[in-house]
């Protein structure tokens, strides 16, 4: 482990944060022009309820374009805290908003700038 890195233990087992990433070519290099303020939650109320999703599996470009048009996008914990959705929102140059982020455990969503979002 790296110096200064926080570790979580379950009995004698070290538990490290998971990593979620997106392809570099999909990350906006500057904040795109915004025409809308806030995007509502696009996921399902329960994980995997495909009929509730606004975009289908072959509509990735439309999904990303939707987020790029908004300044903020609502996201939340569902089955767990860590989700690709949070990274997808960030990669489009949009700020994710979590209503329950203050209650999140310290080791979840390690790739999200939690402190910055909580101070904003």
Describe, in plain words, how this protein is organized in 3D.
The chain has 120 residues and is α/β, with parallel strands linked by helices. Helix content is 19%, strand content 17%. The protein has three helices and five strands; from the N terminus they run E-E-E-H-E-H-E-H. The protein has helices spanning 60-68, 84-91, 114-119, and strands spanning 8-10, 13-15, 36-39, 70-75, 95-98. It has a three-stranded parallel beta sheet with strand order 3-4-5, covered by helices on one side. Strands 1-2 form a two-stranded antiparallel ribbon. The longest helix is centred in the middle third of the chain and has 9 residues, at 60-68. The chain is globular and about 50 Å long. The mean pLDDT is 84.
Topology:
Elements: E1 8-10, E2 13-15, E3 36-39, H1 60-68, E4 70-75, H2 84-91, E5 95-98, H3 114-119
Parallel strand pairs: 3-4, 4-5
Antiparallel strand pairs: 1-2
Question: What's the overall average pLDDT, rounded?
Answer: 84
Helix content: 10-25%
Number of DSSP strand runs? 5
**Global morphology:** globular
- Computed structural class: alpha/beta
Q: What's the total helix number?
A: 3
Identify the strand order in the major beta sheet.
3-4-5
Give the N-to-C terminal Cα separation. 31 Å
Please identify the oligomeric state. single chain
Order of helices and strands: EEEHEHEH
């Amino acid at each position: 482990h790296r110096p200064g890195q926080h570790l979580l233990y379950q009995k004698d087992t070290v538990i490290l944060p998971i990593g979620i990433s997106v392809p570099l070519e999909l990350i906006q290099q500057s904040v795109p022009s915004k025409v809308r303020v806030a995007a509502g939650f696009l996921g399902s109320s329960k994980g995997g309820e495909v009929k509730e999703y606004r975009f289908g599996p072959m509509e990735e470009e439309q999904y990303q374009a939707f987020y790029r048009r908004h300044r903020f996008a609502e996201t939340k914990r569902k089955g767990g805290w860590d989700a690709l959705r949070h990274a997808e929102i960030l990669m489009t140059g949009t700020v994710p908003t979590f209503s329950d982020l203050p209650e999140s455990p310290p080791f979840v969503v390690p790739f999200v700038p939690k402190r910055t979002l909580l101070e904003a």
